[in-house]
Amino acid sequence: MRTGIATVCLSGTLREKMQACAVAGFDGIEIFEQDLVTSPLSPEDVRKLAADLGLTLDLYQPFRDFDSVPEDLLAANLRRADAKFRLMSRLGMDTMLLCSNVGTATIDDDELRAAQLSRLAALAGDHGVKVAYEALAWGKYVNDYEHAHRLVDMVDHPNLGTCLDSFHILSRDWDTAPIEAFNPEKIFFVQVADAPKLSMDVLSWSRHYRVFPGEGQFELAKFMGHVVRAGYAGPVSLEVFNDVFRQSDVERTAVDAMRSLIWLEEQSARWLEANPAPAAGKASGASARRRYPMELATLPRVAEPAGFNFAEVRAGDTAGLETLLGQLGFAFNGRHRTKDVQLWTMGHARVIINEEPAPFGTATPAGGGPAAGTGQPAPAAPAISALGFDVDSPVIAAARAQQLKAPAVPRKSQANEEVFQGFAAPDSTEIFLCQGSPDGTAAWVGEFGEPYESGEELPLAAPDAGPVPGAGAGAGAVIDHVNLAQPWQHFDEAVLFYTSALALEPQPYAEVASPTGLVRSQVMLTEDRGVRLVLNLAPLLQQEAADGTKEPGAAGSGHRRTYQEHVAFAVDDLVATARAARDRGLDFLQIPANYYEDLDARFALDPEFLATLRELNLLYDRDADGEFLHFYTATVGSVFFEMVERRGAYDGYGAPNAPVRHAVQYDHLHQLTRTS
Amino acid sequence: MRTGIATVCLSGTLREKMQACAVAGFDGIEIFEQDLVTSPLSPEDVRKLAADLGLTLDLYQPFRDFDSVPEDLLAANLRRADAKFRLMSRLGMDTMLLCSNVGTATIDDDELRAAQLSRLAALAGDHGVKVAYEALAWGKYVNDYEHAHRLVDMVDHPNLGTCLDSFHILSRDWDTAPIEAFNPEKIFFVQVADAPKLSMDVLSWSRHYRVFPGEGQFELAKFMGHVVRAGYAGPVSLEVFNDVFRQSDVERTAVDAMRSLIWLEEQSARWLEANPAPAAGKASGASARRRYPMELATLPRVAEPAGFNFAEVRAGDTAGLETLLGQLGFAFNGRHRTKDVQLWTMGHARVIINEEPAPFGTATPAGGGPAAGTGQPAPAAPAISALGFDVDSPVIAAARAQQLKAPAVPRKSQANEEVFQGFAAPDSTEIFLCQGSPDGTAAWVGEFGEPYESGEELPLAAPDAGPVPGAGAGAGAVIDHVNLAQPWQHFDEAVLFYTSALALEPQPYAEVASPTGLVRSQVMLTEDRGVRLVLNLAPLLQQEAADGTKEPGAAGSGHRRTYQEHVAFAVDDLVATARAARDRGLDFLQIPANYYEDLDARFALDPEFLATLRELNLLYDRDADGEFLHFYTATVGSVFFEMVERRGAYDGYGAPNAPVRHAVQYDHLHQLTRTS
């Protein structure tokens, strides 16, 4: 598949955009007219720069408001087109995008339109260029891609074809199957964009909220499948108008864009595989058309991860973390034999405390996983730095991630130590792919437990300090979910990253109120719920405030903000776990009395049960499928923990309780600020 | 008018919200349930805090999903209501908001609904409280305020009335006139919210985009006029769900909110004055009902300003500014007799360069106008710090602004010097109200021209250096418009501020592309175009970058970001002005050659004229009403200048050229960064 991208998707100058596209590995680009008009580069400069960068210039766009006009206006439009065709010759470009008329169309007559398009096609022919006619979703008379294609057929000129833009087609819910019957020689160009399903006017939706494939909700693989079956083999080019991408780092956005096309290519191949062309198709034989002119590259396939292998918190000052984990009932499993790293476990839930310095010269200063590098010292305040996932084959999964342009993270390991495949998520969290085991154990645990060479004092709950009280309640414990804060400018990128590289499925997002604004909460799941990852988009001012107070070199400086994040562990008996934790002196997040009154008003709970909830600062939710009990710890650095118990088939996260957590955490933070 | 506000409008904890409401001067508040549930304050604490702050607790809200349900669900709902009524007694509150059912309604039967509402009203009566029933715009069966009112009439119980919410009524375009016929005793509550006209689903519109009155496009004065004529005299309370306000500083937002109600009260009084009640109204006599139960306070009326009196730029290092102004053709009019301030003029366009230190202890460190205080030294880099407006009566206009809670700015002046009435705009620009004169002159100019005591060298174009070459071309020059950058969290506040305090009219906003994202451009006008103010909302990352690089104590630290801003001057002959400026060596913003090719393609300009545009780096636009020529200077600090010529009745600002300016300025800034 030939990949392309319109310069309007990216921030910066035309030169910066072109360089970023080349670095990200695109085959070609669309020149968005305004980017050229505002550039000091001459058309000849642009042509040479593209050649030097190995980029083809695939589409000049857009040419607007041409058809369905009176004759005098048509003459002016042809004059305007002539100027642009001459410009295209200087650029060495051969295809121009023509949008169906929005602003100046006054005559609704297909015969007239075809005649006018025919004159444009003839003029284009004189200049040796082609015109790709596209039905805008809000075109005045032509807003349906089949209508545009009928007009192209009526004109029947070699220099006029159509451009198929997934947004204009899927935003209107047009059926995409008829594409297959199109003459592929008349499909001059294909543009792809995804979008979240929004109920708003289609023009605003298109201009502000398009996203890259895999970041929205359109059925793009199906769209592409029809395009491939039609026999189209030209560029598949991104045209994504997005307020955030326009502001984001150009090189990074270009990589995000490229990742979306690599993923779309694979998904399209899979769709074709799952939906064989009907035997009565336009091909003569039943076995014909198995190979299409467009070749689709595929990626190594991976199953979705079975679960979390570990969660890692990086910290210079580990005392608070050790205390919290010990009080929750985690057992200290010792230090790593060669690294400054501790292991704490409860059932199959494993938490690593990493005191290693950050690796040198990486874009991801958040930590190094169990196999950390060397560099800056760990920041004092704890922060979630890495997550391990159980996968069938770490090597294959890592190869897939790498082909999806996930940046690998450097790590060191010594002989006889398990080597983790790791890469950096958009928020700088390190993602490690680990060999899962059917019984939920992890082989690398054996690397822990030997006395650490530094001779430091062992922490509170060292294994030789005897059995941890109440640990039995946590025998079945696992990591239930992890909640990561996302910087606003990389949220969509994160969704695509986890979708494509880790096979997690995004769910419809929720919004919860906090004292500093609405928090957007995006759940990413595996089908069997073995992995639940929650991406939180914090309010802007909260991100700014966090940014303002972060210490240099802290986890996520540069990317992640020090907004609060957490790891949640599921246990079988939350009340017992909470009681034991309370007996060990745990600092629970204190829930207001008003909450329990409201809970009672809503759910009419058994008074004894309500008293238990209140006594232990437990939160409660219920839906048609089951019940959810949970509690939170106080925050250390930017990290806190949650313990949950799922009863029945409850599949949520206690969203109605989230405002309570946010408010209490906010209040606590303010009290700290006031007293310090 | 009794003023109120729902706690959901504001950020922070319940205590912080209540304190901010009291400081802003509200009479009462609505308690949003979630704010109470998440608060550590007991109901009794809240009651006492409100009493201490002088706030009445006017409405407990919301109670949802009550009516139109089967009997078993109704029983649960009554139990839930009973708990909330008991809670209200502890809070000392007497009115609860009941929203029409969205989620659980299954029976569409007004008889049944009335019977269910009747049971709720009886229960409320037992507790001595009242229920105000509101039709949500997206209610399943009840989504029309007249329908809700009919149900209230059917029930006919003293403890059931209706709540009128302007958003739910105006978002659906319901006619508001029928409100006048309502029995005022059945209107238990009135909530007001404004909103921009958006084409999206009404639920999302309501939850994210409501704004305070005067910040949107609803006809709220008319709505309120009908409410007043109905005879309602209860609280008029803001219920504004807005993503930005939820994140903004609570005290500041509360003042913005209060300003909106003061303004709405005045606008409502004016609407009533302009729309006398029909003689055949519900009152018996033609002269009756002139006085309504609700008393509406009014403000001193002011005419819209006639024009800009001056623009002030504050700078420690003034050399670059002096050079630019001299090259543009401005004459140096000397220094102020007692302040470290220069005056430059061209025709009636006056620019003040202020080198005075900032006033002490103010929230507006941006400068001190011609009457500056003492304090921090001026920042080295020039920034727009103040604007003077010609008004009929500065004292009355200032009194109006003060009653609209505009913060006054401190200034010092000496005997025989004109005293300016000044206050601070939301972006920290200082606004001075000056006595306009019919001939466009300003009396205070006489305070300039004497040699400044410090004995510094006079700048380049001092008056005794002879006539400025080419100054004749600028004899008719005036300030055409001023373009100010707005921080994202105060944009709506700025619109209301200039609307209410300065009688400027907001126009529909435009969005223009820049290399770092879309810039929202909001024009505020007087009817005769004597004042044109353009508020630019820069992309977030641009604001962050500016913020990151600003120097401590710089203009706008704390509020304004150092995004580029400018003053535009209108002249009669732009080509002559540009030629003279070029001959004096002006550093023009360099316009790319591609721009002129595109211009030619679009407008088919006379080749000689096009050559002139190209030669002088002039930009051009044309519409049905006329033509627009303009050019920009290079930027000094965060300030640049524009010279414009309006031909015919052209009323715009060359918006199609704005992306060119942004791109060239961006490129220039990056070149500076690369070479420094």
What's the arrangement of secondary structure elements?
The structure is a homodimer.
Chain A: E1 2-6, H1 14-24, E2 28-32, H2 33-37, H3 43-53, E3 56-63, H4 71-91, E4 95-99, H5 110-127, E5 130-134, H6 145-155, E6 160-165, H7 166-170, E7 187-192, H8 202-208, H9 220-230, E8 235-238, H10 250-274, E9 307-314, H11 319-328, E10 331-336, E11 341-346, E12 349-354, E13 383-391, H12 394-403, E14 421-424, E15 430-435, E16 448-450, E17 478-486, H13 491-502, E18 505-506, E19 510-514, E20 517-525, E21 532-537, H14 540-549, E22 565-570, H15 574-583, H16 593-603, H17 607-616, E23 619-623, E24 626-632, E25 639-648, H18 658-675
Parallel strand pairs in A: 1-2, 1-8, 2-3, 3-4, 4-5, 5-6, 6-7, 7-8, 9-12, 13-15, 17-21, 22-25
Antiparallel strand pairs in A: 9-13, 10-11, 10-16, 11-12, 14-15, 17-22, 18-20, 19-20, 20-21, 23-24, 24-25
Helix pairs in contact in A: 1-3, 1-10, 3-4, 4-5, 5-6, 9-10, 10-13
